Structures are given as C-alpha cells and as structure tokens.
Amino acid sequence: QSVLTQPPSVSGAPGQRVTISCTGSSSNIGAGYDVHWYQQLPGTAPKLLIYGNSNRPSGVPDRFSGSKSGTSASLAITGLQAEDEADYYCQSYDSSLSGSNVFGGGTKLTVL
Amino acid sequence: EVQLVESGGGLVQPGGSLRLSCAASGFTFSSYWMSWVRQAPGKGLEWVANIKQDGSEKYYVDSVKGRFTISRDNAKNSLYLQMNSLRAEDTAVYYCARDRQDGYNPWGQGTLVTVSS
User: Fold this and answer.
1) Distance (Å) from the alpha carbon of A103 to chain B's nearest alpha carbon
2) pLDDT tens figures, B27-62
3) B-chain residue closest to A106, CA distance
4) Partner-chain contact A45 B107, CB within 8 Å
C-alpha cells in the first residue's frame, strides 16, 4: 500500500476536465513537502509533468495544472485529448522514512 | 541534450547478483543527487535509492537495505546499483533519474531485471 493514495482510475470524454487526487498525511504532504506529478505513456519512461505543486516544465501544455492543500494535492487536466491517456503518479517526500521519496500508487486515465 | 541511459539488466537466479549502470550526458553530473526508481510489471513506481553529489550520503528503501548498494563515479558521469541476494520481488524495470528538489527530471529509458529460476 502506497504512502500517497491515488484513485486507481479516472476517465473522461475528449474536451472534458478530469482531476486526480493524491492524499497523504502529516509526515509528507501535510508537512509542507512539495508534490510533483509524472505522466507515463504506455511503454515509456515517466516524464515530469508538474513540479513544486503547481509548476509546469517547459513544453507541458497549460491544460495540465496542479494544486495542493493540507494533506492532499490534485492534478487537473482540461480539454482532454486522446494522447492524454496514460498513468499519472504523484510524488513527495516523507519525513518518517529515512531518505524516502514516496510515490502514489498511480492513476490510469482513460479517454473515452 | 540531457540524457540518461541505463544498462546491465537481465535474467538472474534468486540469490544472484547484478550491477546496473546509468550513463549521464548533457549536464554537470557531479552537481546533482541521483536516484534509482523501479517499476514491477504492471505495478506503480517505487523509489529504491539515492545518492548525494559527492557520494557522502546514500539512502535506501527498507526492502533493499543491506542487499543493494548505490554508487557513482563523477569522473565517468556514471551511476551504479549493485544488487545482491536478489529475490523474485526485485523483478522490475529499473530507472535512473536526476534527483532534484523540483522532481525527478529526466528519467532514463529503463533496464529490465528479471529474477527467476
């Protein structure tokens, strides 16, 4: 069981908006550690999608946005496109685990 | 272009050893923490280990402590993962990644380690 909890799957039609939650605790997200999000397209390595809770690396469309509040974070995708179908992972740091960077269990996004 | 290329994966019997390598290019390797992250077949991502710029600090996930050793050679722009006493549950694609406060970026393409008799 992952330290950070994500829904196993979400879905949406093209053009719609979806959100993916990432729930942690007082030793990770709630302690103020940043949350990062990764997109993993089928058969490829993960790619940084959002860093520092809400920042997009260059080249990432502004359809992707991140937010954080309390012990949770969220990834929002607007104007869904077929190429957004992928697995999405949140990641943070946990102070209760030595040197531990922790990931969420991942969320499979299906574009209907 | 910033690039990471892993190598060294393969099929190994339970209890065996394997050494993974990660060749870095396009950035000042010695200036960054580096990490290994793995992904079991059909499963999510799991951070395995990381190492400070000069190798003076190393951290491991509990499940590999005492069996895996992370190291680096800044002169060769290379990161390593020595894996001993391998178990079936270590079967995964192993990725190296540049470890920054603002996330893992970039990632290598991964190398598959299969532990099976």
Assistant:
1) 6
2) 999 999 999 999 999 999 999 999 999 999 999 999
3) B44
4) yes
**Vertex B34 angle, CA B29 and B37, to 5°:** 140
- Cα–Cα distances in Å, from A70 out to A52, B23, B87? 15, 39, 38
- What is the predicted pLDDT for the residue at B89? 97
User: What confidence tier does A99 reach under pLDDT thresholds 50, 70, 90?
Assistant: low
- Which residues in chain B (33-72) have CB-CB distances under 8 A to chain A? 35, 37, 44-47, 50, 57-62
Q: For residue A98, is pLDDT > 80? A: no
Residue A75 token pair:
């990834």
CB contact set of B49 (below 8 Å; sequence gap of 6+): B35, B36, B58, B59, B60, B61, B64, B68, B70, B81
